[in-house]
Design a protein that fits this description.
elongated; 75% helix; single chain; 281 residues; mainly alpha; MetI-like fold
Length: 281
């Protein structure tokens, strides 16, 4: 515990970390507290006031069905963030387990697993997600599953590469000679040495997951109306950009700030962990 506090203080002292935390705090505050302050129903339609310009009643205007853009933006924030983090988290856990097992076991198992991973890495993450969506059908749940599946390969490849030098380390060879059980070798010798890499990848991957989920919704195969995430709002905003420009700009800005904040936090975390990096024997 005593070793962690200097690392935490060093991480919090970095300008990138502080800026990232500020940006992410702003987005989370808007998404969580905003709906409590601006309590208009994001699903209430008013055909008479479709494409209304920003006003006191509708600060960001309305969409073509007269729904308040600000209310929909606030409601979409929580869904976008939670779904993106959950999707990447699921994919990361599976990918990390596969990567560690493949790198540590080696042999034919490693060869087969890595060939499958290579095939998946040959295509962009978004394209892999589109294939999964085509199989299971468009929906928010389907989009989360699609992003999770497409996130497995990158994590597996990186963690496998991290484990390879550990497998041949002297302390692992000594553990093998002493007939140390496999689960103990993984827990004592492998996991502490890959934990930092996995943590940084998980943080940075969360931003990528939010972007891919929004892209799927923007294409109409993620979240389905009347529900909305930032991708759905971008689609609606593009249609209304000549009438209510704020409807297109607002979700894009929220997405930009969120991903930028997460990436800055991940960059600060990576810098700190590289500085404090010590091998665990």
């Amino acid at each position: 515990m005593t070793e962690r506090w200097p690392t935490l203080r060093r991480w919090l002292s970095l300008p990138t970390t502080r800026i990232g935390l500020v940006l992410l705090t702003i987005v989370l505050a808007i998404s969580i507290i905003g709906p409590l302050v601006w309590d208009l129903d994001p699903l209430t339609t008013d055909a008479v006031n479709g494409y209304a310009s920003p006003s006191g009643d509708h600060p960001l205007g309305t969409d073509r069905l007269g729904r308040d853009v600000l209310a929909r933006l606030l409601a979409a924030g929580t869904m976008s963030i939670i779904a993106g983090v959950a999707a990447v988290g699921i994919g990361a856990i599976v990918g990390i387990v596969i990567g560690i097992a493949s790198g540590f076991i080696g042999g034919r198992f490693d060869a087969v697993v890595m060939r499958v991973v290579d095939v998946l890495l040959a295509f962009p993450m978004l394209l892999n997600a589109l294939v999964v969506i085509a199989i299971i059908g468009p929906s928010m749940t389907g989009a989360v599953i699609a992003v999770s599946v497409s996130a497995i390969a990158p994590y597996a490849r990186v963690l496998r590469g991290t484990v390879l030098p550990i497998r041949t380390a002297t302390f692992v060879k000594a553990a093998r000679v002493s007939n140390t059980p496999l689960h103990r070798m993984l827990r004592v010798h492998v996991l502490p040495n890959v934990r930092d890499v996995a943590l940084v990848l998980l943080v940075i991957g969360a931003g990528n997951g939010i972007v891919v989920l929004s892209a799927l919704s923007f294409l109409g195969i993620g979240t389905q109306p009347p529900d909305a995430d930032w991708g759905v709002l971008l689609t609606e905003g593009v249609r209304a950009v000549y009438f209510v420009p704020a409807a297109a700009v607002a979700p894009a800005v929220m997405l930009l700030i969120t991903v930028l904040g997460i990436n800055l936090i991940g960059e600060g975390l990576g810098t700190t962990l590289r500085t404090d990096r010590r091998p665990h024997a």
